[in-house]
Amino acid sequence: MEAFRHVFSHIKPYRRDLILAMLLVLAESVFEMLIPLLMTDIVDVGVPAHDIPFLLRQGGKMALCAALALITGLLYARFAARAACGFGAALRMAEYRRIQSYAFSNLDHFSTASLVTRLTTDVTVLQNAVNSGLRPLVRSPVMLVMGVGLSFLINRKLALVFAVSAPVLGAVLVLIVWKVGPLYQRQQKAVDHVNGHLQESFTAIRAIKAFVRGDYEAAQFDAVNAELMDSTRKTFRLTMLNLPAFQWVMYTAVVVILWQGGNSILVGGMQVGDLTGFLSYVLQVLNSLMLISGVLLLLTRSLASAKRVWEVLSELPALDTPPHPVKEVPDGRIDFDNVSFRYAAGAKKAALQHVELHIAAGQTVGIVGGTGSAKSTLVQLIPRLYDVTEGAVRVGGRDVREYDLAALRGAVGIVLQKNVLFSGTIRDNLRWGDPEADDEALWNACRLACADEFLARMPAGLDTDLGQGGVNVSGGQKQRLCIARTLLQKPKILIFDDSTSAVDMATEAKIRHGLAGLKDVTKLIIAQRIASVMDADRIVVLENGQIHAVGTHAQLLETDPIYQEIYHSQRREDAADGKDVQ
Predict the structure, then answer these.
(1) Inter-residue contact 68 to 30 (CB < 8 Å)
(2) What is the topology classification, in CATH, of domain 334-576?
(3) CATH 1.20.1560.10 fits 2-314, yes or no
């Protein structure tokens, strides 16, 4: 219930609408409950006496109560919708902001599909709980209390039917809720699986078509879809038992009341109008009990969704800004002081082990190594995408944990191994680096990244629409746009994580030549090709998460066997392809 309480605290900004909706439901219920009482007098007093003025007065009062109930019901719908939709929007925004504050290690706890489900389906369930559940939640107890009280007022003996029917209904409801609760959790996990498969198949639709795997993927989707169907069917099959059980009890109670009431009328112990009004209240009471059961089932499902939403909201970001952070990075000096790093606390082996490396401001450093040697992991510690497990990473002479996160990441430009562009124009994407950049600055950055070559051929230039995820440009063009975007950030440290792998060697040489003019910027270049780093001031060779060697191209070529093996294997490949080799 703690999750429920915390999640529903987001409805506070819409408390006024919520309270007004509850008061309007209360008024509506009172007006409706007065109608059977007025009808009793019509049957018992007005009809036997043929008193037309009395009948008209009572009928007018009933019509007035009905009209007031209608007006309060319509007003309730308006305020309840405002409260529910506002609550849903606030909850989605709270989740989204929390996710944006996550470190990479936090994101490892949730799959993308699960986060999407928690932001959409689970929030919709909670929103519907407010919109659909508020009315019966307020109305049913009022109708129950007033119905039972007025029933006892009319005939105490017949009202004892509630003493028998209520426990039966309660037992049925408890059994259903106890069985259904875990099924709702399973159902939401099945939705995660469907969303996960959809995301994966839509993202990889070109690969699926290229390998003619459409039928296979359809079969895989059929499996997760069937899982969702089965869990939903089992859940609702149990939930729907609620309705027949309540109807059976309700109609049994009506038959008993008619039998006893009819006998009382025959012996003169009860009037027809009293029996008619009593039956109306009995139906109201039993109907209110059925509505309460529906609310409890709705709350059971909402509780499952609330737990999932609360897991996102209660996840504390692994990285945060210190209380009194340093707001400015003085220069691009980088120091790794005996750094070790594990992705998970319980991991048997560290991804990085005892790394000792010192890079002066303005240097260009190449980083090479085999697959899995932790090259990307090393550079991700600099902008504090992860925190070190042991030791310290220093930028500008200060531990990165002392900096304001925004200030640190603003001073460290990183072109990630996986290039990401967003829907919109080229101009929109480039301005991620500098929202205030004018066209001159944008073109300068594009020239440095050699992106101006293909931009000049595009009819709309910077205003060319990239499509979803940049599908309208090639891999090499996407890499060059990502480099230009990072250059607009004007960082003190530039990190290229294998970010020219899709660019031809001639274009890559032009990019390196342009970047060489950035004298005050420290440049770290992760590359698979030796040609990409051979002109660097120093080259770091990584192996199994440890620094194997550091030196210039000439020094490593003379002394380091790993570097020699990489270099000579690439020379052989280039020679086989007919390329010029050095």
Answers:
(1) no
(2) Rossmann fold (3.40.50)
(3) yes
Contact predicate 317/197, CB 8 Å: no
Q: Decide if 311 contacts 192 (C-beta within 8 A).
A: no
Output the pTM of the full model: 0.73
The answer to whether the beta carbons of residues 525 and 365 sit under 8 Å apart is: yes
Distance, in Å, from the CA atom of 239 to the CA atom of 226, rounded to the nearest integer, reads 20
AA identity, residue 216: Y
Query: For residues 223 and 204, what is the distance between their CA atoms, to the nearest angstrom?
Result: 19
Mean local confidence (pLDDT), 432-448: 90
- pLDDT at position 411 is 92
Cβ atoms < 10 Å from Cβ of 541: 22
- Would the pLDDT of 286 be above 80? no
- CATH 1.20.1560.10 maps onto the chain at 2-314
443 vs 477: CA distance, rounded Å? 15
Question: CATH 3.40.50.300 residue ranges in the chain?
Answer: 334-576
Helices within 323-366 (DSSP H only): none
Quick: pLDDT tens for 46-101: 667 777 877 788 788 888 988 998 899 899 889 988 999 999 999 999 999 999 88
Helices (H), 321-372: none
Helix axes of 272-314 and 112-119: crossing angle, nearest 10 degrees: 140
- Can you list the pairs that 405-408 forms with residues at least 24 positions away whose Cβ atoms lie under 8 Å? 405/319, 405/320, 405/321, 405/325, 406/321, 407/325, 407/326, 407/327, 407/328, 407/329, 408/329, 408/383, 408/384
